[in-house]
Amino acid sequence: MQKLFFKTAVTAAALCFSSMALAQQKYSVSGTVKDHKNGELLIGVTVKVNEDPSISVVANEYGFYSLSLPEGNYTLIISYPGYKDFEQTIKLEQNTKLDLPLNQEDEKIGKIDEVIISGVKKDKNLSTAQMGTETLSIKNIEKLPVLFGEKDVMKTIQLLPGIKSNGEGSSGFSVRGGATDQNLILLDEAPVYNASHLLGFFSTFNSDALKDASIIKGNSPAQYGGRLSSVMDVKMKDGNNKDYNVNGGIGLISSRLSVEGPIQKEKSSFIVSGRRTYADLFLKGSDDFKDSKLYFYDLNLKANYQINENNRLYLSGYFGRDVLGLGDTFSTDWGNTTATLRWNSIINSKLFSNTSFIYSNYNYKISLKSNDNTFGLDSQIEDWNLKQDFTWFAGNKHSVRFGLQSIYHTITPSSASGTSVSSFPRNPRKSWENAVYINDDFKATEKLTVNYGLRLSTFSVLGGDTFNTYDQGVITDSRFLEKGEFGKTYVNLEPRITANYRINEVSSVKGGYSRNTQNLHLLSNSSSGNPTDQWIGSSYSVKPEIADQISAGYSRNFNHNNYELNAEIYYKSMQNQIDFKNGAQISFDTAADVESELLYGKGRAYGLELIAKKKTGRLTGWISYTLSKTERKIDGINNNEWYNARMDKTHDLSIVATYELTKRWSLSGLFLYSTGNAVTFPTAKYELNGQTIFQYSSRNADRMPAYHRMDLSATYEPESTKRFKGSWSFGIYNVYGRENAYTITFEDNPNNPGTTRAMQTSLFRWVPNITYNFKF
């Protein structure tokens, strides 16, 4: 009897356990999210379960999503700004692959959509743990007034808090006290080492070829590395795989044209986008400048092929060049070349793989000729890069990224040739940079989200050159490494964590810490940057730069998320910062080593960032303000005391607005104000051999005049047909004619040689523009 009872009880328990296990059985629904009209994969789409709104997932940058749910019937709600919400009913009985299409909103809705998107849904700023991140809408920045009428993501990000322009017309920028080289700029995962055309008046990014652009200010996830201050991640369009499209624009100084379409309908596609300025054509009408050259061009190419439902190949490239010259007397050209071969693979319903082979090259050349004398200067940085990245949707609470990256750098230092200098080129310096990383986006509770990760990076100096060690510019050691020989290796561990706690439906608080390291360094004597600035790698004297940043923020939305307020404070401590010593002499002959002119120390940056947005209605825009300080302390400079870094600006204000006047007309305007750059002005002078020599005291203790200007533009969109759409853009840059200082130089006053006068150079007073844009 007892045996029978025991056997019955065990059987009942087993059946109960089996039923519970069956009830808890979970299946995955996964796939990609695409634009229904053109087949473009959409980045960062929210997929939410209607029966339990707390369960949601965000598609990765390749459009892949995955949800794990118990067996049953569900309604998925898919949402993305600029697109109509889409509902999909499913009966989940097994692991299911489900690709989701989204339709763009109609033109009326599109016109009043938000100008800048802060995430994948209106209250994303309240729910995500990621801090200091902005994602730009390529579609909606086109109406903002910019220099020469070219819509430009690089110019647009400089209107956001914590991101400061390096100067008039410059596409270079500083993020939270970092130098220009401390920003990692990626185009389809390939590093872009000089993201500017025409000395910074244009950026390398032709917006017609772009799908998405985002910037992360320091608190980047672990899959990003190699720079201290920010990551700007730009992705090109894949190309329409359903229909052929042509779009472009004709402006006063440049024109552009893009063609995209299917190679094999709904299976493969391409896009080709080109742009060129033609200022040189106007110069030919002048006898004095008819032999001059002044133009740039760039070309974006991309193609993709779907091997099967789980595998797709992508090949993309960028080619850009600037050419400036004055007959046979002077010429300079510089440019970038990038290429990315990418393989996306859906390994299973939870695991997504991206394998990338990446090439990047930046180089410049300068030629001078005077009578029988010639002079040439050139430099190059070249990368070969392998990246393996996995996205693992471990559950509805965990989205894990992990992988590795390996980069082989070859840097050819700036070297001269010609009749009056040594003609022997410098040896290229080679190095190998590697990293492994893991990052988890964890929904701990309904209110708490945590993003944490770890990156282990290494940088090895490789042989083929002589390496000196310096102390305050004096050689203390020298060694030659044979080709292929490993020299100094630096190893750094980089932890990152950010957390978001949602207080209620309309507000949240955030906090975070991150460590970043940097092994490539740009040597520049100017705040705005020049094409001839030279890159160097970490070596025996030059150590990796390290930055530790802590930040905290508060977000609040108003009026059903139509208004948004974000505030962040940050403090960043930096090690191994680099600057030129006083009176540095930069030489390009083979005997010179630029490292002998460098000094090293520490830095700090701290500040407050505020941004208020109005995201819907006829009037949209934002107001951003930054209060900040950034300093350096380097032995041998400024009596070993703290001094202002070149990029230090106390105040930075941007006001941006777009107003839909009628169905056909829209008006846009922006106002900028910022404290002038920190500079060093002379404090005394003396005469030596008939020449005036100026004396300088504290480094960067003076200021350029404050910078401010207002820009206005108007856009007219005539009635469009089913196949053709056109628009006119009219604008004026610097409406009230402010003569902002580009440079200030000093010279003897010709009327009173005992005194000194300052000479200010300004670039633009008023710059009108007219551009015609078309698409068919």
From TrEMBL:
Domain TonB-dependent receptor-like beta-barrel: 298-735
Residue stretches spanning the membrane: none
PROSITE patterns xrefs: TONB_DEPENDENT_REC_3 (PS52016)
Membrane topology: Multi-pass membrane protein
Superkingdom field: Bacteria
Domain (TonB-dependent receptor plug): residue spans on this chain: 149-227
Signal peptide residue numbers: 1-23
Presence of the UniProt keyword Ribosomal protein in the record: no
Keywords: Cell outer membrane, Collagen, Membrane, Receptor, Signal, TonB box, Transmembrane, Transmembrane beta strand, Transport
Cross-referenced InterPro entries: Beta-barrel_TonB, Beta-barrel_TonB_sf, CarboxyPept-like_regulatory, Plug_dom, Plug_dom_sf, TonB-dep_rcpt-like
Database matches in SUPFAM superfamilies: Carboxypeptidase regulatory domain-like (SSF49464), Porins (SSF56935)
Compartment list: Cell outer membrane
Pfam short name (any one): TonB_dep_Rec_b-barrel
Membership in a protein family: Belongs to the TonB-dependent receptor family.
Protein known as: Collagen-binding protein
Species assigned in the record: Chryseobacterium vrystaatense
